[in-house]
């Protein structure tokens, strides 16, 4: 069966149906032909990240003609999806699933300023990325540097940014801003305070006058991992700001390209994709779009889920706390994959979504039926008439998301 569509060649092999005897039945597949907003939820250790990895693998095994028109991108805050490049060593787990071990051609980017940190593992981490400082507004900088708009530093920051734009256009660096601060007639105390904050931002290593172009990162036919796990030196608001900027860039590029495609379609002309359709993967999604307060990535993600279907933008989110996810995003989800949940607030959030879709049963009913082992889930879609019990298939590539154990570091006798 195919959840959310009807074209098998453009669908993902998610797993197989299970029943009360744990017998495995027919394949369960997810549609990849149309844009979807997918939420994968479950408590820690239930298999959420594994499920995301399976969907990534399936995206990369679509027919070549389809694959060349889309891009998969995962914003990886945990540092586990680089391992798509390595085939699974657990080949015995694949028995009975009609799949074989394989590695996938993934491009892994990391913050360019952390190049030394990644040097030892550059076999799997390929290229640094940077942003132009000009991609942030004055308000963004005030937020990142923790400066109140009523402080004198705020006025000085606005002045030096304006001066840098006049001198360099969009191609200025933080060093250029520091030079402008030094040249300012403002008092030494105010200059020193702003200088310290800008120096800290320079050391984050993500800003440059030669920033990475989104068209070079997000190309058709490729899968990209944006690894933020080594960015421990980056404050969380910097990571969410970075995510928000990238999401906004992809949305704008793809929306414009869709308008161009529609004009050509009306004229009866052959249409080619300039900027690819995007499948965006986001683990620990509640940290990027939390309920109760706003992160820099919140508004771009809300716009993505509300308006992204027309330009062909999909989002696959994983969270162990669906109750902590901004409801504006959860409410736009058309496909839900539920692993084991226990917390009341999180079960309630998912239960509300189940009721909204079509089912009369409570979430507790399904949680009582689901086996405790990792990998079991219930899947549903807006268009489906039933909620499907599924055991997610094993990964073909290596899953690097397992917990570290002391036994790994013991020498063999």
From TrEMBL:
<dbReference type="GO" id="GO:0005524">
    <property type="term" value="F:ATP binding"/>
</dbReference>
<dbReference type="InterPro" id="IPR008571">
    <property type="entry name" value="HerA-like"/>
</dbReference>
<protein>
    <submittedName>
        <fullName>ATP-binding protein</fullName>
    </submittedName>
</protein>
<keyword id="KW-0547">Nucleotide-binding</keyword>
<dbReference type="InterPro" id="IPR002789">
    <property type="entry name" value="HerA_central"/>
</dbReference>
<feature type="domain" description="Helicase HerA central">
    <location>
        <begin position="27"/>
        <end position="231"/>
    </location>
</feature>
<dbReference type="InterPro" id="IPR027417">
    <property type="entry name" value="P-loop_NTPase"/>
</dbReference>
<dbReference type="GO" id="GO:0043138">
    <property type="term" value="F:3'-5' DNA helicase activity"/>
</dbReference>
<comment type="similarity">
    <text>Belongs to the HerA family.</text>
</comment>
<keyword id="KW-0067">ATP-binding</keyword>
<dbReference type="Pfam" id="PF01935">
    <property type="entry name" value="DUF87"/>
</dbReference>
<dbReference type="GO" id="GO:0043139">
    <property type="term" value="F:5'-3' DNA helicase activity"/>
</dbReference>
